[in-house]
Amino acid sequence: MRTAVLAIATSIVAMLQLVVAAPLGKSDLCRLEPAPITNQTCQQWYADILVGTPPQEFTVLIDTGSPYLMLPASNCTTCGDHTLFDAALSSTFSVSSATPINPQFATGADAIPLNQSEGATCYLNADTVDFVGLQVQNQPLLLCDSYAPTLNDMPIDGILGMAPPNDTSVKSLYWNLYDSGIFQVPEFGLYLAQGTSGAAEMSLGGLDADMYKGNLQYTRLSDDASGKPSGWVVDQQSVSVGSGSRKKSVLPLGQSQQQQGKRDGGPPAWAVLDTGTAFIQGPDKDTVAKFYAQISSDIRMIDPAGAWGADCGTLDRVATAITFTLGPQSVAITLIVPKEEFNMGEYPGQNGTCQAVVSSPGVPGFSDGSSPIWILGSPLLKQYYTSWDGINNVVGWAERY
Ligand SMILES: *[C@@H]1O[C@H](CO)[C@@H](O)[C@H](O)[C@H]1NC(C)=O
Ligand SMILES: *[C@@H]1O[C@H](CO)[C@@H](O)[C@H](O)[C@H]1NC(C)=O
Ligand SMILES: *[C@@H]1O[C@H](CO)[C@@H](O)[C@H](O)[C@H]1NC(C)=O
Ligand SMILES: *[C@@H]1O[C@H](CO)[C@@H](O)[C@H](O)[C@H]1NC(C)=O
Ligand SMILES: *[C@@H]1O[C@H](CO)[C@@H](O)[C@H](O)[C@H]1NC(C)=O
C-alpha cells in the first residue's frame, strides 16, 4: 500500500519543484523557476493552478493558515497587475452566493507586520480546478472585486488555502481532492527551501521519503476549547531562548497565563502553524517585550506595526536559537528555530536597523487577552520536513535532507 502511495506522491512532487526566484523587495517569496536568480531568503512559497474550462492560469501562495482558494475577479479595479479570473469565459463556472465575504489577513506578504488587518471583498463561487494535473469539480472559489495593498505587493495572483478540513465551512481544495478518492493516505508533505538556494516541494497524497531522514514525530492538533483559533493549531507548552546551560525559559506565554484555569483546561498557549506568515508572532506586545528582555535590552520595537529589532551588528551578536515545546504536555516535542534565523535582515526604510524574527501583533484586537496565540511561520516550518494530516488531525516533523 505504502509503495503505491509514494509513487503517486513522487510523480506530483516532480511537478511542484519550487526554487528561489525573483521576489519583490523584502517579500521573500519563492516560486517555480528554473534557477536561483537572487540571494533572497525564502519565507513563503507559491505554485501555479488552473481554474475554469478552458483553464485560466494563476499563481497562488501555498497558505496553511487559510481555507479558501481566492483569486481576483475580472471586475476588480484594485487588483494591480494580477491575472484576473474571467467567469464569463468558463463553461463550468457557477455562482454560489451574492453575499460578500471579507477574508482578513492579520499577517501579510512578507516580514513586515501589518498595522491593521488587510483583506479583500470577495464572492463565493465554484468552478473546476486543476492542481498539478489533479482535478476537482465545483471547488469553492472566492472571486474578489477588491484587494488590499498587501495582496497587490505580492508576486502572486491569489491564495491557495490549505487549512484542515474539520473547522471550516468551505473545504480547501486539498481536502476535496482527498475526498475524491485519488489518495490512499490523507497527508501532504512540505519541504520548504532554506536559505537562498535549493528546491522546495510539496507532495500530495503521501510523503516524499527522499526528503527526510529518520522517523516523523507527531504533534496532535489541539482539542476544541474556548478561545482556540482555527487552522493547524497545536498546544504550546513553552518557549525558551539560548542553548545548553544558558537556556532560559520565557514565561509567561501570554498575558493571560494566570487565567488559564478558567479556560476549560486549555493549554498554556496555542501555536498556529502557518506557511503564509514569514515570521514568528507572539501573542501580545507585553509578552514579546518580556521575551526580548531575556535576550538583550538593545532589542526594541522598531515599527508600531509590531516589528522588533536593533542595529544590525548588535542583533547578529545577540542572536539566539528559540525552542518551542509543542503538543499535549505528556507527549510534547521540542522544535527549534536556529540562531541563523534570528536576524531577518535590514528593516525597509531604516538603514542599519535589522529586524528580529519574533513580532508582536500589529492588528488591534488580534489577541483579546484570554487566548495566548502564537503564529509559528516559515522560520520554524522550513527547518523540518513536515506532514499535514487533517483527517487524523496530526502534524508530523522530521529531520530534512
Ligand atoms: C550572492 O551570494 C554570492 C555568494 O555568497 C555572492 O558572491 C554574490 O555576490 C551574491 N549576489 C548578490 C546579488 O548579492
Ligand atoms: C463584480 O461582480 C460580482 C459578481 O457579479 C458582483 O457581485 C460585484 O458587485 C461586482 N463588483 C463590482 C465592483 O462591480
Ligand atoms: C477537529 O480536530 C480536532 C483535533 O482532533 C478536534 O479536537 C475537533 O473536535 C475537530 N473538530 C471537528 C468539528 O470535528
Ligand atoms: C504603522 O503605523 C505607524 C504609525 O502610523 C507608521 O509609522 C508605520 O510606518 C506603520 N507601519 C506599517 C508597516 O504600516
Ligand atoms: C546606509 O548607510 C550607509 C552608510 O551611511 C550607506 O553607504 C548606504 O548607502 C545606506 N543605504 C541605504 C539603503 O540608504
Automatic annotation (TrEMBL):
Keywords: Aspartyl protease, Hydrolase, Protease, Signal. Residues 243-268 are annotated as: Disordered. Residues 1-21 form the signal peptide. InterPro entries: Aspartic_peptidase_A1, Aspartic_peptidase_AS, Pepsin-like_dom, PEPTIDASE_A1, Peptidase_aspartic_dom_sf. Residues 45-398 form the Peptidase A1 domain. Pfam families: Asp (PF00026). It comes from Apiospora hydei. This is Peptidase A1 domain-containing protein. The keyword Signal applies. Gene3D superfamilies: Acid Proteases. Belongs to the peptidase A1 family.
